[in-house]
């Protein structure tokens, strides 16, 4: 009982500390998460029928919002996208440059920012969002809507530009969505389980459902 209370108190103190950090320190954490995303981007499995590889980035994206909270999760992924576009070679395959964002995987990177902003908002605003099932549901929505939609849109535009013709929706899904679903669900379950273990289940910044 005492151990459980100690763990709960530690989680609360860590998240309250994270919330109350100065902007320079929050920026330093955001850069650290951006670096982690860059490292996990190198864990890649190329698919012979698709220009989009399987990578570990999504796991970092889902956790960025949990670890950094409202705004700063999204800022960390914006740093990842911005520095990568500026030439820092931490996109998948140790690539960099603005041309990468205009390529077949650029839309997914834009989606990373949207997903982190979305999840960070819920993490810092609602205590109830920190249960395993709530977190998993939010992560699956962020992954399959906020990341996949811009990813598929830009992939479709890229395929049309290099192929000179229209691409069927089935072909688009087979290249940019269907092969990644099992892995993304697995990563979401792992990230939600980790989030469940590290997030406090009481208010640390005046959540709207405090005391409900």
Structure description:
The chain is mainly alpha-helical. The protein has a single domain (2-198), classed as Arp2/3 complex 21 kDa subunit ARPC3, CATH 1.10.1760.20. 68% of the residues lie in helices and 2% in strands. A two-stranded antiparallel ribbon has the order 1-2. A hairpin with an 8-residue loop joins strand 1 and strand 2 (54-55). The model has no long low-confidence stretch (mean pLDDT 91).
Key structural traits:
212 residues, mainly alpha, Arp2/3 complex 21 kDa subunit ARPC3, two-stranded antiparallel ribbon, 9 helices, elongated
| Number of individual domains | 1
Query: How much helix is in the residues?
Result: 55-70%
Q: Indicate the radius of gyration in whole angstroms.
A: 18 Å
Percent of residues in beta strands? under 5%
CATH class, named Mainly Alpha
CATH 2nd-level architecture? Orthogonal Bundle
Shape assignment: elongated
Distance N terminus to C terminus? 24 Å
The average pLDDT value, as a whole number, equals 91
Task: Describe the sheet with the most strands.
Answer: 2 strands, antiparallel
What is the element string, with H for helices and E for strands? Answer: HHEEHHHHHHH
For the secondary structure, the number of strands is 2
**Given the structure, what is the number of helices?**
9
CATH topology: Arp2/3 complex 21 kDa subunit ARPC3
Side-by-side strand order of the widest sheet: 1-2
Query: What are the segments in which pLDDT stays under 50 over at least 5 consecutive residues?
Result: none
